[in-house]
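REQUEST FORM: STRUCTURE PREDICTION
Request ID: SP-0412
Submitted by: Lab K.M.
Chain count: 1
Length (residues): 362
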Amino acid sequence: MSTRFRRSLHALLPVIALAVLIPQANASTINQNASWTIDRAGTSTKYRTVAYGDSIYAGYNGSVTSAAKYAAPTVNAEYLSAQWGSDVESVRRTKSGAIASDVYNNKIVAERSYMQASNTRVVTFEMCGNDGLQARASFKSQTGTCNYNVLTAAENSCKTYVTAAMDYINANAYAGVKLKVVSNLHYPGYAVDNVQSSCKDPGTGATVKMQDKFLPALARMNFMMCDVARQKGFKCADNFAQYMGGDYDSNGDGKIDSDGLRYIDGESEASYVNRITTTLRSTIRDANTHFISSSSSYDYIQSDDTHPTYNGSTFSSGLFGGTTGSGAPRYSTISAGKNPIWNQYGHERIGWAVSTYNPATP
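STATUS: Completed
RESULT:
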């Protein structure tokens, strides 16, 4: 590599990274694929878990060339490996910055072969975060009379492609798959959105609190994901509840906040949305300070105020290709279904949430 090329590349990478850092504003995308095997001592039997999605499952960390090794899909693979006493390959087929239609068409459909392998036992996906982020960015830039159609369009797109994804996975995944999971959305920037809009409501002529417009839209999207999952044989990892509610009872209603915010199988949309936006609104906290007790918290969100924090190192994933590798589990045993850091990082929390549905045997 010439010195001139190295210097040009050094100058170019920050520009590319900046474009991907703000996908909601400019729709830049980059494939971030990886395969990492939890190599457990004393066994050569290997099963596979496949994760499709955007930057959340990718383990995006602000780089176009690397990603978190222990993103949520690999965290769940560790739980599976400990439970099954086998090697588990975590395959991530992800695109940072992708909206739901992109994840569906160019990951789930175009890369279906990964879930069709005969050793696949778990298929999980997440999407719609960038649809929501782009709608939020559009709404925030509005002046004059507010146009709420951008939020409605994001909700409609999410429903269309989440439903299509579940149908496609049901029709195409290996017949021996034991578990299918959708992960719903946390609310990045919850605290930042506690301000008035620049545009004015068409009915009242007054500005609106942005949090009051975005939270109900997000609640409807999250309800839809979990409810469609219930109907189509999927499980729903409720990341909104896991991120936005503390792990203690802050309002004295007899429920841990994160449990109180969770979707309840079979409840109506109206009931769920009212519970999130009104009844339990006081228990919602920005995930930058996820409280595990009344006096102790961990930061679940990176400095970009969007992507989950993670434990450990990174590996190649992005502009220069992806990683295929293996390594021993971080914990030789996992007690009571929770590793020692299950609630200390955003990715650890998602991985644990998915793991709560893991089948007892492969």
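NOTES: The longest helix spans residues 149-172.
Reviewed by: T.R.
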